[in-house]
């Protein structure tokens, strides 16, 4: 497969939908390069949302069609407002479909909680580092709860529609 010319890869990858194209990018560096081609993602965008949307949302600057596709897909799935979303065990702050900030991961938060159980005091007898970790842990739990609540409410809305 690695010896195939670029054009053959393109003909094959043009037959894939966006999910399979995303999986193909994980196979090898060569496949990632080919599957990231702007022409592939532009065609996928036009198939899903039409040529008028493609003309309006055409990437500007350093953005690629893949990025534009991912943002539009995220808008369709979660809406365009300010949201906290969960993808796997990771949480993100999203606005207008664009990921604004990585908020953290439940996996990392559980590891930090496990490692920070002992208190650490400074010379004045104050627990500055322990308090900082504790407040950070509480904030993380609140953000993760909001993210879980967003997911649960979206699933409840979907089940009511069906």
Automatic annotation (TrEMBL):
InterPro entries: F-box-like_dom_sf (IPR036047), F-box_dom (IPR001810). GO terms for cellular component: cytoplasm; nucleus; SCF ubiquitin ligase complex. Residues 1-44 form the F-box domain. The keyword Nucleus applies. One of its GO terms (biological process) is protein ubiquitination. Component of the SCF-type E3 ligase complex. This is F-box protein. It comes from Cajanus cajan (Pigeon pea).
């Amino acid at each position: 497969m690695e010896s195939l010319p670029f054009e053959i890869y393109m003909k094959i990858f043009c037959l894939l939908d966006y999910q399979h194209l995303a999986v193909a990018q994980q196979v090898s560096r060569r496949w990632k390069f080919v599957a990231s081609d702007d022409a592939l993602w532009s065609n996928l965008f036009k198939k899903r949302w039409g040529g008028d949307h493609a003309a309006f949302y055409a990437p500007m600057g350093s953005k690629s069609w893949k990025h534009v596709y991912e943002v539009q897909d995220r808008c369709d799935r979660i809406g365009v407002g300010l949201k906290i979303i969960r993808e796997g065990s990771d949480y993100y702050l999203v606005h207008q479909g664009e990921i604004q900030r990585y908020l953290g991961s439940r996996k990392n938060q559980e590891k930090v909680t496990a490692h920070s159980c002992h208190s650490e005091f400074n010379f004045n007898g104050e627990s500055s580092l322990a308090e900082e970790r504790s407040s950070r842990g509480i904030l993380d739990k609140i953000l993760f709860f909001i993210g879980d609540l967003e997911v649960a409410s979206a699933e409840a809305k979907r089940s009511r529609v069906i």
